[in-house]
Amino acid sequence: MSKLPYSTKDVHYDNDKFRHRSHFKVLSQSLTNSSTRISCSLGKFLMLLLISGVACLFLMNKSSPALETNSVQNANFTEFTEVAYQRPPRLWRRPPRLPPRLTPDEMHKKGSRLDDSKWVSRQQKVKEAFNHAWSGYKSFAMGFDELMPLSKRGTDGLGGLGATIIDALDTAMIMGENDIVKEASSWIEKNLVSRINERGQVNLFETTIRVLGGLLSAYHLSIGGNNSTNPEMLLEISKVLGDRLLLAFSSSSTPIPFSDVYLRDKVARTAPDGLSSTSEVSTLQLEFNYLSEISGDPKYYSQGMKVLEHMRSLPKVEGLVPIYISPQSGQFSGENIRLGSRGDSYYEYLIKIWIQQKNRRDTDLKYLYEMYTEAMRGVRHRLVRKSIPKGLVFVGELPYGSQGDFSPKMDHLVCFLPGTLALGATKGMTKKKAIESNLLSNDDIENLKLAEDLAKTCFEMYEVTSTGLAPEIAYFQIKGENENGPHGGNTSSEYLNDIVIKHLDRHNLLRPETVESLMYLHRITEDPKYREWGWQIFEAFEKYTKVESGGYTSLDDVTSVPPPKRDKMETFFLGETLKYLYLLFGENDVLPLDKYVFNTEAHPLPIIGLVDEI
Ligand code: DMJ
């Protein structure tokens, strides 16, 4: 294992440190602060001399008037970085405190228990997989959104902002893959602003969670750490992008933003049917809130949070909401209720935003916790059932609303829920500690139980197929319906008859949700089985999705061996799937859950308002 770029305990981020201050102000503040403390002792006199010397050195290092340049709108970023980010010499910045992390060899020697070294080498395998994924992308698709690993070319499925690079950057930082960090950072620095100025249509949600989220978490992780990434550059680009994305809000006559932004033309539009997805408009706030925190500009926070304040008063079914909402009327549209696509991260962000804002949990954001609690009661009451014959607990759908029939359909996307339920129950601490401290309410206990049951179901969705990889969508047997429905193909799975996999649902997009939940469940329950399950899933990815020439590919059918392939490596494979596997096999105090909140694309952001802020 190579070095982590920082220690989560040791990084102190101080916004002022990274906002522009004039050289004169920096110097005079340093002198003033020092001189107020100076008495007549010789030691302190020498200290003053030293500071004056340093100040002279500093002034001799020619400053550029362009340091005052703050606007990057319409600028070519290469030019911009040359002038605007000529930073003062390093000596004015707090030196990074980076406790050395152990290499695999050192870890093997140190680990007295066999089990330690097993997980160290498994974690190493995930890192190798990340390198393989990156090398394919770099060789054939650098600068494109995604790699098509079989045809060995790139494709721009997300608007052309180089999404894989940005999604992968913080994973590379966490893994200590410094060459990749350098390559990704330098691409971003040279290209991203001009891409934002030149490219066309992007989806507000995808761009926020993958690109803005990736930039912000890389910003945080690079503070005080890795010299190959300039946090100020990441912050400035985040503001440029954030300002464009705000157009989706300002163009709407209600608090519900439009779904698309035309970056180059600086306009926002609705989707062709005029509707926005419920999960999309409510899955922007962790990112926008953090951008306000580090930029000092509250506009991102206030626009994003208006969506949730507005949704608070809309009618719901026991806290559950339809998957569409109209930016024209501000009302939900249709009756389709599900925790899969277009519904999922609405529920995820209710609790995560509440967690992110530590100081507001008991005051103005208490309503988010209440909405989450009510919604999870609604899930347990309206959507949770058991399959037959073996009793797997699953979450189904209400496609025709509260009065319509229940559908036993569960998207793989729903597998984010076990992780979120566990996080919401213990607020990031271990189950043991939460129980000992008597912190779990009845709702928490029920949610934690449901989390463990659902994590098993999500794992069985992998186990039940011939490849050991889950389909995009599964149906569960209830009341003996679909008894002879198509199954996953693994005849040794005891759940073969409980899970039906329809022909059109057999693809696998390298999605992260199950391994994401395994990471949360492992950290919170400390049960080693979750790691073993994660390893099994990783091995199946290695066996069936790895492409020799570089990269990993989505599959068309997980029920047949060898599985037909799809020729696409989604950005979230590097941003989420491999990151969660790496964290699952690693130490629990890396990005601890009581100090960080992961956005829905697995980009860790610090919890705001902690006493010992990171
Ligand atoms: C990711 O972009 C995010 O996790 C999102 O919330 C759901 N879909 C993909 C991964 O499957």
Shape: globular
Widest sheet, order of strands: 3-4-5
| Helix and strand composition category | mainly alpha
What ions, cofactors and ligands are bound?
1-deoxymannojirimycin
In percent, how helical is the residue content?
A: 40-55%
Question: Which residues form runs of ≥5 with pLDDT under 50?
Answer: 1-44, 54-102
Distance between the termini: 23 Å
How many runs of DSSP E, i.e. beta strands?
15
What portion of the residues fall into strands of 2 or more residues? 5-15%
Radius of gyration: 25 Å
Mean pLDDT: 86
Largest sheet: 3 strands, antiparallel
Counted by DSSP, the helix tally is 22
InterPro entries: 6hp_glycosidase-like_sf, Glyco_hydro_47, Glycosyl_Hydrolase_47, Seven-hairpin_glycosidases
GO molecular function, one term: calcium ion binding
Family: Belongs to the glycosyl hydrolase 47 family.
Disulfide bonds: 415-458
List the helices and strands and how they pair.
Blueprint: H1 15-18, H2 23-37, H3 42-60, H4 77-84, H5 104-110, H6 114-141, E1 146-148, E2 153-155, H7 163-175, H8 178-198, E3 201-203, H9 204-222, H10 231-245, H11 247-250, E4 260-262, E5 267-269, E6 276-277, H12 278-281, H13 285-295, H14 299-312, E7 322-325, E8 332-337, H15 344-356, H16 366-383, E9 384-386, E10 393-395, E11 409-411, H17 417-426, H18 431-436, H19 442-463, E12 473-476, E13 499-500, H20 513-525, H21 529-545, H22 571-585, E14 596-598, E15 604-606
Antiparallel strand pairs: 1-2, 3-4, 4-5, 6-7, 7-8, 9-10, 11-12, 12-13, 14-15
Helix pairs in contact: 2-3, 6-7, 6-22, 7-8, 7-9, 7-22, 8-10, 9-10, 9-13, 10-13, 13-14, 15-16, 17-19, 17-20, 19-20, 20-21, 20-22
The protein binds 1-deoxymannojirimycin.
